[in-house]
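If you are new to this repository, start here. Below is one unmodified record pulled from the training split, so you can see the exact layout before writing a loader.
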Amino acid sequence: MQQFILIGKVSTLILWAVLIVNLFYPLAGGYSQYLTWGLIALAVTHLLEAVVFMLKNKDSEESVLGDTFKVFVYGFFHPLSLKQNNEAS
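And here is the target side for that same chain:
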């Protein structure tokens, strides 16, 4: 499970990088527009995940803001890693 989470986080970072680089150096043809829409969809989806995560964990004793940012960046892979860490300890 640990490798799945790591591969997912790295893949998500690569996806973010590709989509953001496309904003500054667009691909030729219509693919650039699809990647821009993909960036918008990814950002909105991860924002919704982060808001839900923050609302569910607002009474937590741990740092919710840092974890919320990580949920925005990594998506559902960060809560998976938190769950696995809690089960391990």
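Two things worth knowing about this chain: The mean pLDDT is 91. DSSP finds four helices and no strands in the chain.
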